[in-house]
Design goal:
About 85% of the residues lie in helices and about 0% in strands. By secondary structure, it is an all-alpha fold. Helix 1 runs antiparallel to helix 2. The longest helix is centred in the middle third of the chain and has 70 residues.
Amino acid sequence: MKIEINKVLENVLSQIQDKDKLLLHTDRLSTLGTMTASMMHEVINPISFISGNTQILQDYYLPQLSKYFSENKLPKDHPLTNINGQLPKVCKSINNGITRIKN
């Protein structure tokens, strides 16, 4: 009789230990999910600022700069000569990076 009771108790103890391991694993996954969501929030907020400012740069400042450069011919050695051609490429590169981070 004692042997049977010991076997039942060992079986119950084994089941409790298995459930305990499962609960611990579930808790760890939950913690990981919470941490990941928090990290994503901290990444996405600054990316939104960068994206918004890049959009303002493209929609407002670039057309004004382009108009200024077409109306005022700068000497070839002037430091601002390359901005009109390079700034749209820089904005496109920033937007590509933003898209990659968001994806």
